[in-house]
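Comment thread on ticket #2218

A.B. wrote:
> Attaching the input chain for the structure job we discussed in standup.
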Amino acid sequence: SAPLKAIIGLADDYSWALVGEPEGRYLWILARTPRISAQLREDLLSRLKAMGYNTGALKWVVHAPA
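C.D. wrote:
> Ran it. Output below, let me know if you need it in another format.
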């Protein structure tokens, strides 16, 4: 069966969400905009590291300009 995934972090205004699974094999940072600020990125990475996730394995998607 597929690994259980859950929302592990959520902005008060729903502008971003962190989705992962307990074993740490899967992790997504989802945002409502194609780009997030450098400060937000660092804040989210710090949160994820504190939860024990390997943030070095994240692959960042570069979106084409609209």
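A.B. wrote:
> Thanks. Noting for the ticket: The radius of gyration is 12 Å.
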